[in-house]
Amino acid sequence: MRNIQSLDIKKFLPHRAPFLMVDYVISITDEHVATAFEIREDDIFVVDGLFSEVGLVENAAQTCSSIVGKSYFDEDDIEGKGAKLIGFISAIKSVKVSACPKVGETIRSDANLVSRFDADDYSICTLSCTVSTSGKELLSCVLNLFIQKIDEY
């Protein structure tokens, strides 16, 4: 089994700085993913030293998209050359924010696939996600995502 933390997440997600909200994948299967993200002072979602609610939702969405996005790449594709994907939140079914993390903290996001519909070049899915730091839950949500394979971006 390869060390997935050594994979460059930018090769698999279409997001780029300053909008990339995942530093690395801790673990991933077809139905679950765990990611980590360090809150930095210059992050676009940091307000008065706290990572905002919007940032937490975006982190959850990027984490969730990894599960479905994974299926568009071959298992041995460590360069992210197998597919170009775009995706967006099509619905926020529920969201509960308990607290916002501080600059310097690292958040862990755990997402689980609830349902998935695949067509020729796109997937529609429902996922649940929790975001925490130091064992304290910060956010829980259920999102619908639309993920599409495209020629280029």
From TrEMBL:
<dbReference type="InterPro" id="IPR016776">
    <property type="entry name" value="ApeP-like_dehydratase"/>
</dbReference>
<dbReference type="Pfam" id="PF22817">
    <property type="entry name" value="ApeP-like"/>
</dbReference>
<protein>
    <submittedName>
        <fullName>ABC transporter permease</fullName>
    </submittedName>
</protein>
<dbReference type="InterPro" id="IPR029069">
    <property type="entry name" value="HotDog_dom_sf"/>
</dbReference>
